[in-house]
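Here is an idea for our session: we take a single protein and study its fold together. Which protein we use is up to you, so please pick one and set it down. Once you have written the record down, we can walk along the chain together:
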Amino acid sequence: MTSSDLHICPTHKSRMFQRFNSTLWYCPSCENSKKSVKVDTLHTSTKIGAKKGGKSGKTKTPRQRAMDNADMWFSRYIRFKDSEKKMFNLFVARCYTCGVIHDIKLLDAGHYVNREHKTVRFNEDNAKPQCTYCNRYRSGKHLEFGIKLTKEIGADKVDELKQLSLFPGEDNELFYREQAKIYREKFNQLVKEKGGNPWTK
């Protein structure tokens, strides 16, 4: 065997190259194969993670699922309550902070005091229909929200919301199940009163 044979990849039969400042030689084809394997493995694990419950691959706890369900029914009720029917099951409402009219399914239930404060998360005085632009990209337009809310419910009630938010609230599965039940029933009552359900085709 000659010295030149030592620099031919036995797998790909292609020329090998010496690494910088090293006595080691490598084959570009072998290197590419290793990278491909890594990418494929990462891609597969990402898919598996998504199936298990999102980007992190973690499944939600019963408490988290109950909270999501309660949030959904509360949000639907808040948007539906201040809406008007246009045709068929199309209900529209005005964004609380910018005044633009939207299909209520395209609106959010915006909170004046952040909903992370559990004591006011499901407080009807604290939530109003908001367009996604105001709610998500303009931090809820907090100043405009507060000015309008103060005119609507009074400064004393706004202060009560702020004081209430300072206390720890309930944060368990049973509490969220109860909230979901309350607002599902309120929503269904509105369906009867308004003569249609926006979330049915």
